[in-house]
UniProtKB/TrEMBL annotation:
<dbReference type="InterPro" id="IPR016024">
    <property type="entry name" value="ARM-type_fold"/>
</dbReference>
<dbReference type="GO" id="GO:0008093">
    <property type="term" value="F:cytoskeletal anchor activity"/>
</dbReference>
<dbReference type="InterPro" id="IPR000225">
    <property type="entry name" value="Armadillo"/>
</dbReference>
<feature type="domain" description="Protein inscuteable homologue LGN-binding">
    <location>
        <begin position="47"/>
        <end position="93"/>
    </location>
</feature>
<dbReference type="GO" id="GO:0045176">
    <property type="term" value="P:apical protein localization"/>
</dbReference>
<dbReference type="GO" id="GO:0045179">
    <property type="term" value="C:apical cortex"/>
</dbReference>
<dbReference type="GO" id="GO:0000132">
    <property type="term" value="P:establishment of mitotic spindle orientation"/>
</dbReference>
<dbReference type="Pfam" id="PF19427">
    <property type="entry name" value="Insc_C"/>
</dbReference>
<dbReference type="Pfam" id="PF16748">
    <property type="entry name" value="INSC_LBD"/>
</dbReference>
<dbReference type="InterPro" id="IPR045789">
    <property type="entry name" value="Insc_C"/>
</dbReference>
<dbReference type="GO" id="GO:0009786">
    <property type="term" value="P:regulation of asymmetric cell division"/>
</dbReference>
<dbReference type="InterPro" id="IPR038205">
    <property type="entry name" value="INSC_LBD_sf"/>
</dbReference>
<dbReference type="GO" id="GO:0008356">
    <property type="term" value="P:asymmetric cell division"/>
</dbReference>
<dbReference type="InterPro" id="IPR031938">
    <property type="entry name" value="INSC_LBD"/>
</dbReference>
<feature type="domain" description="Protein inscuteable homologue C-terminal">
    <location>
        <begin position="110"/>
        <end position="559"/>
    </location>
</feature>
<dbReference type="InterPro" id="IPR039921">
    <property type="entry name" value="Inscuteable"/>
</dbReference>
<protein>
    <submittedName>
        <fullName>INSC spindle orientation adaptor protein</fullName>
    </submittedName>
</protein>
Length: 559
């Protein structure tokens, strides 16, 4: 394709357009010259990939707005027989075969550009910056036409989507025309009425564009699912699953579309065929990502996905990676954040087998990621059914999990310790838990000293949760006199006092403070002599809320 030089171009921007055309032609000739004469030069390859492509991206912002009209749906490419393939303005896409393989990602990038322009237009309309409103409308119109043209050229468009495209293009043109009228008047009354009309049209354009993109994405997703369902090639199926997994990283809305198109059903069909065992882990990782939305969980429930997960987890011939990803799916569907619990009815039927397999996976995990996935699944399960806690006690889970905390290969981050101490906190409500904890109580108390190894906010938050849940567990278990006495002998009281009095020790966390005050009061009730008079006067004797206010307002120099 070449730049449009038809006589219908508007006369005003021709001078700018010719300058940019000339610069563009020079750059493309230089690009081809380097490809032919210096095919193996690292420096020239860097030039053709970085400088030329970056210049073309910058061109979109440097040219006059009217000049961009001429570039409607006009991708700029080198010769078809060139080794470097096709370069597309404003898309940031590389070689042609790469474009073909990543139709979906290209579509998403172009959609983001249009959405950004529409968002800018809403903002500028509110401020009454009419020149900017019109220029943004022109750019949005160009991008929409370019997107529609490129997508239609790459894939046959369904009839229903063609209607959306036609309507969208008409509305974009109407938006461009009506904003242009606002440039030639200073009549405030007219501009006010136009602002309302433009806002209405702009809302229609945004809605129509969103619907068109959803339909285009659904169309592309259907192609991937058909590949998974109809192909016998592990390579083709694996590639389609990789593309689906990549799409799930773009947010819940896309996961909902993927689920509605039947991806979960297709992926579980793969996981039920022995000949595709090498794809189990890959497929289950994708299922876990899709199940972040309710639609994905509903689809899993309809195809008895929980039974399939139980089979993989309990199958000793399954590789660790497949069992770890099955654990990830279990963790996802049992998350307390989900509002719907209908799917958990079928989960209860397989719970004993799943819990048993998960604690075995924690015990035999070869790395931190596997342990994290298995322990996260167990932590979520203990929230919704006390029977799971009883099963874990029977399986010696407390010793297994606390022993794992000594193994840096399995428990190497605060996130894993967070899962462990969550399980312990939920188990501690059972009376028989106290005797189990006594053997490993020193390891539990060490969790009160958890500190972040970096300045990462997420790691700091994980350490806060570990401290809080360790204190909660200790408070619950200290109803047993033997546990309370052992905790005092292991110097739990000084550490709890330190966490109460020093805000930096608890990362200024109020939840840690409350948990530590509760644990101290439980210990003091059984062993009042274990706490000094000054600490008793400030941390035990007052009402809990008064002790909380006192400690939360302490300056660091107080300690």
């Amino acid at each position: 394709d070449t730049l449009d030089r038809s006589p219908t171009q508007p006369p005003a921007p021709i001078h700018h357009l010719q300058i940019n055309e000339f610069a563009l032609i020079v750059m493309l000739h230089l690009h081809q010259f380097f490809c032919v004469h210096f095919p193996h030069s690292t420096r020239m390859q860097s030039l053709q990939v970085d400088s030329v492509q970056r210049w073309m991206e910058d061109l979109r912002h440097m040219t006059e707005v009217e000049c961009m009209c001429v570039l409607q749906a006009k991708p700029i490419g080198v010769e078809e027989d060139s080794q470097q393939g096709e370069l597309i303005v404003a898309s940031g896409v590389g070689a042609g075969d790469h474009v073909a393989r990543n139709n979906l990602q290209t579509l998403l990038r172009r959609a983001l550009v249009v959405s950004t322009e529409l968002g800018k237009m809403f903002q500028r309309l509110e401020k009454g910056r009419w020149q900017r409103v019109h220029s943004t409308a022109v750019r949005a119109n160009c991008h929409v036409r370019s997107l529609v043209h490129e997508y239609s050229a790459a894939r046959s468009t369904p009839p229903e989507m063609q209607k959306y495209e036609k309507s969208l293009l008409e509305k974009c043109m109407e938006l461009t025309n009506i904003t242009e009228r606002c440039l030639h008047t200073d009549d405030e009354f007219f501009l006010k009425s136009m602002r309302e009309a433009i806002h209405e049209i702009l809302t229609d354009v945004s809605d129509s564009f969103s619907n068109m993109i959803d339909m285009a994405l659904a169309n592309e997703i259907q192609v991937l699912i058909k590949q998974i369902e109809s192909s016998d090639s592990i390579h083709i199926i694996g590639s389609a699953i990789s593309n689906l997994l990549s799409l799930t990283q773009d947010g819940p809305q896309l996961c909902s579309i993927i689920a509605k198109e039947g991806a979960v059903v297709a992926l579980f069909k793969i996981c039920r065929q022995d000949r595709f065992r090498d794809l189990y882990a890959h497929a289950l990782r994708t299922v876990a990502s899709i199940c972040c939305v309710e639609e994905g969980i509903n689809q899993l429930d309809k195809v008895d996905g929980i039974l399939c997960l139980a089979d993989i987890l309990t199958d000793e011939s399954s590789v660790e990676a497949a069992r770890a990803e099955a654990a990830a799916v279990v963790a996802q569907i049992t998350s307390p954040h989900h509002t719907s619990t209908q799917h958990l009815a079928s989960f209860l039927e397989s719970m004993h087998d799943i819990v048993t397999a998960l604690i075995k996976l924690c015990e035999s995990a070869s790395c931190g990621e596997v342990f994290l996935l298995a322990s996260a699944a167990l932590a979520n399960i203990t929230f919704f059914d006390s029977m799971a806690c009883e099963i874990l006690l029977q399986l010696n889970a407390i010793q297994i999990l606390l022993q794992a905390c000594k193994d840096r290969q399995r428990v190497d981050t605060p996130y894993s310790k967070d899962q462990v101490v969550t399980i312990l906190a939920n188990l501690s409500v059972l009376e028989q838990c106290a005797s189990e904890v006594l053997q490993e109580q020193g390891r539990l108390l060490l969790l009160l000293g958890e500190k972040p190894s970096s300045s990462s906010p997420s790691e700091g938050a994980a350490c806060e949760r570990v401290q809080q849940k360790a204190a909660v567990t200790l408070a619950r278990l200290s109803r047993d006199p033997d546990v309370a006495q052992t905790a005092i002998q292991l110097k739990a009281v000084p550490r709890l006092i330190e966490l109460c009095r020093s805000p930096t020790e608890r990362n200024n966390s109020d939840s840690v403070l409350v948990a530590c005050l509760a644990a101290l009061r439980r210990l003091a009730a059984g062993c009042p002599d274990s706490i000094e008079a000054a600490d008793h006067q400030q941390l035990i004797k007052p009402r809990l809320v008064d002790s909380f206010l006192l400690c939360s307002n302490m300056e660091e120099s107080f300690v």
